[in-house]
Amino acid sequence: MATSDTAASSGPVDSSTAQTTSAGTNDPMEDEQVSRDFATWVKDYRVYAASQGINAVTLSAAFDDVAFQPRIIEFDRSQPEFSRPVWAYLDTAVSDQRVRQGRAKLDAYRDAATRAENRYAVPAEILTAIWGVESNYGSYFGHFSTINALATLGFEGRRQDFARRELLAALKILQSGDIDREHMRGSWAGAMGHTQFLPSSFLSYAVDADGDGRRDIWGSIDDVLASTAHYLEQAGWRAGQPWGVEVTLPDDFDYAQSELSVRHSSDAWRLQGVRVRGGAWPSFDEASVIAPAGARGPAFMVGPNFRAIMRYNASTSYALAVVMLAERIAGGDGVQGDWPRDLEPLSRTQVKEMQRRLNALGFSTGGPPDGIVGPNTRRGLREFQRSQGMTPDGFPTHALLESVRDAGES
Fold first, then answer.
1. Is residue 288 predicted with pLDDT exceeding 90?
2. Which of 24, 174, 275, 372 has a CA between 20 and 30 Å from the CA of residue 77?
3. pLDDT single digits (tens) 197-255
4. Nearest to 306 by CA among 320, 317, 293
């Protein structure tokens, strides 16, 4: 999902589960009240949008038949109890079938991909991989009306201010004539087209590559690939540099350094004993080493281009999926190291318990338990692991949760 600077995505959205059906509250009076409140909200928003330069014709096209979508609120509020481990996500995102489709799509649209690569210096395989991960090469990019989705989220959602800003951007797109309301469709969260641009990202980065006078990320593959390449170029893509490389780490590696916020030159990492697992040693001024499955899983040294992909979607799993799919489309082998597939992921409730117990033991996870394993939780876990003589990789497991429980009860 091409994100705006104001609201990065928390991770890949599986839009294949989205439906366009609406669910009521089973209380006719309550549904009627919601409808009235939504109509009032839309009326007020039309006044605001007009003050921002949206003309009456566009407002009428957008809002005369706008509809509140309860199903979207259900998606917005849902927080899965279990999250997929990185290897399970990659199994789907970089499946053999998706690799074969990617090669076929790149062959079919080679000219468009080459034009985008020549213009913005982003490899055709990377653009094809983003297309594949975001919408399975256009086979599903969502059927929700973008106007309905963003109006619903602006009226009643977790990020109302964000949704209202994106709705205004969507109105500007309609007013520009790039797309009409009926065909402006995408995910329940407002991301649109083959490579899932948010409206604000569309305004900033979408380009008319086929010269028909419209920026069409729904129907023109030329526009889709060029717009995606433009986004990455503006996100800091560096021509001629690799995204990174798979590496092996020394036995005494300090996993406190395995965060994207820690950056050293590739030569400095070499001095610490980091070695390439096949391929050439890259030359980076600022590179990070990441171990997304802890000490038992593969490790990677990543540079500016990996960070540019994370500007597109702020998820390590997502960025790994893109670069691995791109490598395999180009004929590479993908990840060489073994994932710890025997490890079952912790549930959100179990992560909250771990955070609560770590905080009580004096190993701060950065705040109240939220069930999300971020840098602060990993830091707390590493401090606990050190205190127990374990390898301090900060990777949460059931065995580690049991150790935390035992420490709290001793």
1. yes
2. 174
3. 999 999 999 999 999 999 999 999 999 999 999 999 999 999 999 999 999 999 999 99
4. 320
Type of residue found at 67: A
Whether 228 and 134 have beta carbons less than 8 Å apart is answered as: no
- How confident is residue 27, by pLDDT bands cut at 50, 70 and 90? low
Q: Where are the domains of the chain?
A: 348-409
Overall average pLDDT of the 358-385 stretch: 96
With tokens 């350094």, the residue in question is: 257
pTM for the model stands at 0.91
Q: How far is residue 219's CA from residue 95's CA, in Å, rounded to a whole number? A: 25
Q: Burial, 17: exposed, middle or buried (Cβ in 10 Å; 0-12, 13-18, 19+)?
A: exposed
Give a three-class secondary structure readout of the chain.
CECECCECCCCCCCHHHCCCCCCCCCCHHHHHHHHHHHHHHHHHHHHHHHHCCCCHHHHHHHHCCCCCCHHHHHHHHCCCCECCCHHHHHHHHCCHHHHHHHHHHHHHCHHHHHHHHHHHCCCHHHHHHHHHHHHCCCCCCCCEEHHHHHHHHHHCCCCHHHHHHHHHHHHHHHHHCCCCCCCCEECCCCCECCCCECHHHHHHHCCCCCCCCCCCCCCCHHHHHHHHHHHHHHCCCCCCCCCEEEEECCCCCCHHHCCCCCCECHHHHHHCCCEECCCCCCCCCCEEEECCCHHHCCEEEECHHHHHHHHHCCCHHHHHHHHHHHHHHCCCCCCCCCCCCCCCCCEHHHHHHHHHHHHHHCCCCCCCCCCCCCHHHHHHHHHHHHHCCCCCCCCCCHHHHHHHHHHHHC
Tally of CB atoms within 10 A around 354? 26
202 and 169 Cβ atoms separated by less than 8 Å: yes
Q: How far is CA 360 from CA 138, 278, 364, 367, 409, in A?
A: 48, 44, 8, 11, 11
